[in-house]
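User: I'm curious whether this sequence folds into something compact or stays loose and floppy. Could you predict its structure so I can see for myself?
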Amino acid sequence: MLNGRDSNYETDVWTPVFKAIQDRTGAPDYLGTLPGDEDKPRRETEPRRPDDHPDEGAYCEPRRDRQGAYKDSGANAEIVSRQQVMVDVSYRIIADHARCLTFALTDGAVPSNEGRGYVLRRILRRAVRYGRQYLDMHEPFLCDLVAPIAELMGGVFPELKNAHKGKNVQHVADLIREEEESFGKTLDRGIRLFGEAADHALRRHHGRISGEDAFRLHDTYGFPIDLTELMAEERGLKVDIGEYERLMEEARERARGVEEDSAASKYTRDVHGTHTAYPATDDAAKYEVLDCETQILGWPYDREIEKEDELSAGQEAALVLARTCFYAEQGGQVGDKGFIRTDTGTFEVNNTHRVQDHVIHIGRVREGKIAKGPAHCQVRGERRATMQNHTATHVLNWALREVLGSHIDQKGSLVDPEKTRFDFSHPKPVTIEELMRVEELCNEYIQADRPCNIEEVDKDKALAINSLRAVFGEQYPDRVRVISIGGDIDAMVADPKNEQWMKCSVELCGGTHCRRSGEIERFALISEEGVAKGIRRVVGISGEAARKAEAEGKALLEELKSFGAALSEEFADKLRSFQQKVEEAMIPVRARHEIRERITELQKQVKKQAKAAASNAAGEVMDRVAKLLEEAECVGGVTIVVGGVPQAPPEAMRSAIDWIRNKTEASAVLLSCTDGEKVTLVAGMSKAVVGKGIKAGDLIKEVAPLVGGRGGGRPDMAQGGGDNPGGIPEAVDRAKAWIAERAS
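Assistant: Here's the prediction. I'll summarize afterward.
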């Protein structure tokens, strides 16, 4: 197993990876030294010959000196330097971490800020840090080790090459490269900050890095605390973990600030303090009905059992019931709203939360008085829309995997009566074609009207089902609730690896759902965006909302088709107003894409018209300038060309001035034009004229005030303007006189 070597890192499992690291980084040879070997003679082993292990890739290059001779392990042996030890440590860490990342990302994991994704991010950043600090790698390099690892181990683990439709090597390399590029932007600054903190610790704090510096490394530069501790250990230092943890807790408290101040959180804390005083809430009815009979048990306040016998109109509280049909916020689905009625009053429920075994109903007394005793629960009608959106979320999860690949993992969701918002792992934006295909698959699933089967199953049996989607990091009980849209759950449990289950949506879920997929009615995706590194978000709507969105999208397209493409201020204003309306509209991504394509085409037509108009204007300007040149007066050897031209853009006027300067030995030019409201002035002087001290910028400053404006520029070319077209004749006369005075 060890190929006759003393360390597994010198076997043919690792040496090809080490060779790939050396080829990519140009690092010195791997010599197998360990921490503690510093300043000692380097230990040598018998060099391996190629014929020891004739298999390709199994040969470990023998250790030689720079002249090619085997190293002498006797009195003349080299002394091991600390740099060599850290190079060898870097080889081992980079190889091990690159292999770990390659396998984990192949299995569908993605670096992120939580759960297993955060573990992978820390592993990657640790390897990158060693490469940067000890192998002098200032660009992505881990990503280039994926192919050699897949080549080395692909025979035993074919998924390293075959996953993601045969593009796994590229997929994994792209994920790693993005992470390296992101971390690389702050790594050098972070290393410098650590160096400053370490020096300060040595001088002032008896070799202990302050918790404040460790926290800043984490908060600003993405250095996890274990990486900071490792870097400190390499320099014989410690980290003030106590202070670091205190600062981290303060940061967590600040992040929780808004939530902690909310009424819901206040009541949640109250129930946490008194939950043992109430029996568990029976909420089984939430899956079956929207109203039920119950008993009001109480309303805790300030972490104590209620002090009052009743609640009066306007009072806020959190009711604890013996039985409820309200769904408590959980698993991404919002809590229900509705009413709790008694013979003496009505309590309006604005939100519903779960605290351990209790469902708390947060709201206020709408009328009358509320006391403990019999009551009637009634959930508001929005529950049906929430159920449509929740079942649509399951179908969406399945469709995303079908279109984008098996690496898709749920990273968060929010389901309410208005929409479903779904976050998932994916390394790049979803194309419009992919989004359209996802939406199409969802609506095919809905039209098939498949039954929504729900059963409680042993957790281990459920997790074995092919296609089942569970949220990584969630703590599931021994018995779990399986939702399968279109698949027989008993058959799935009996034959969990059957490929046909991949055609079904199968998830662990405690939410409320439609009885059949057809009850969703219709589904539309309305947006897609990135929310974090490697995390995308889509928002969809279902039922009547989806139909309205599709209708509005069609109406906007029809309105846009009625637009002409006339080059005018009115058209530009109309198009801007329409674009604003589209941005504010809730329409499917398909319609939004078509509208944007049409707008782009209209803008191209307008630009084409503008270009043609500019070309025509330039021609008219040149005709007028040629006439002005024929009539020009020559003073002191300077040809003075001053006059008005047809309305044209400034670039056309500058081109005309260049033409004049090419036609004359020495010329001074001022051209003016107006659209009836604004005046444009452009002046130009040939090199010989500038040599006489006559400058275009000075001329513009002289005459621009006469048309109600100002301007300036270079000695050879300048521009100005104003808002008084009536001043043009005076400006022209003044320009002629000003030039003649200086040219004579």
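Summary: The chain is about 45% helix and 20% strand. The longest strand covers residues 358-371.
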